[in-house]
Structures are given as C-alpha cells and as structure tokens.
Design a protein that fits this description.
149 residues, two-stranded antiparallel ribbon, nine-stranded antiparallel sheet, mainly beta, single chain
Length: 149
C-alpha cells in the first residue's frame, strides 16, 4: 500500500510493517494505524520510525532501549499481555520514543512509557511502567556522564 508522508514522501509499505494501536497512543487516540520502519535497510540499527498511516505529519523516532540501557526492565501485566495477545516473549518488541533537539548527543529517551508491540499480531500499546524510569533519560548515557565529569 502506498502512504504519503511528510518525512519520507510517498512510500510503499508492506502489510507486515503495519501496527494497530486499538486505543491509539495517549494524546493521539484517534490515530490507530502506523507502520514501523527501521532506520536502516538491513534491520540492524536500534533506531526506528513509527509513521501514522492516517496523518502524514505524525511520525515518531524510536529506539530499542535495551541497546542503550542494558539493565532496563519491562514487566507487562496480564491485561497488557492479553490485549496485545502476547503469549511468546520472542514476539514482543519494546521501543522508546526519542526526543531530539539539535544533535543525537542531546537526545532523550522516554523509558517511563515504552511502546510495546506484538510483531506477529501487529498490534501495539504505549504503557506507563511502575518502575522508576524517567521520561527524558539521556539517549547516550555514557557520553552525558563523561561530559558531567
């Protein structure tokens, strides 16, 4: 299917890249269908784009939080597991929304409210974790720590 986007122009999206958020994303509840696009063609980068199929200007920059915070933990409650039909951990993909103002070195990552995907059912949900994580954690934590010294 062809999707017109503000960021990428018109692109051809394969159906397996479509993700449905049954309740939308908080604050954007009326937009339910997105496609997940790896930042590189080889699917090796920890970065992704989540583009709305319904609003050409709505695109999130995402990253795999485990690539930057190896001790990061996400505990899903039974309601979330049921809603996403997640029966197998291998079908789960956890991504965090990035905020980039200026350079990537200054980017922050929302670890408090990750996006959880079922890659087989192609569904997603943003959830707020009970763990003590921030919404603006430095993406490049080691660089930020070195600059603070």
């Amino acid at each position: 299917m062809k999707i017109d986007t503000a960021r990428f122009g018109e692109i051809d999206v394969h159906e397996e890249r479509l993700m449905t958020f049954a309740n939308g994303i908080p604050g954007l509840e009326h937009f339910k269908t997105y496609f997940l696009l790896p930042a590189d063609d080889k699917d090796e980068s920890p970065f992704y784009f989540l583009q709305s199929t319904e609003e050409s200007g709505l695109c999130f920059f995402l990253a795999d939080p485990f690539s930057f915070y190896p001790n990061y933990e996400v505990n899903l409650d039974n309601g979330t597991l049921d809603q996403l039909e997640l029966n197998e951990p291998k079908n789960a993909l956890v991504l965090s929304i990035l905020t980039v103002q200026g350079s990537l070195q200054d980017a922050t990552m929302n670890l408090k409210a990750p996006l959880i995907f079922n890659t087989v059912a192609r569904s997603g949900k943003q959830m707020v974790l009970k763990q003590e994580y921030g919404i603006k954690e430095p993406l490049l934590k080691q660089v930020a720590a070195q600059e603070g010294e």
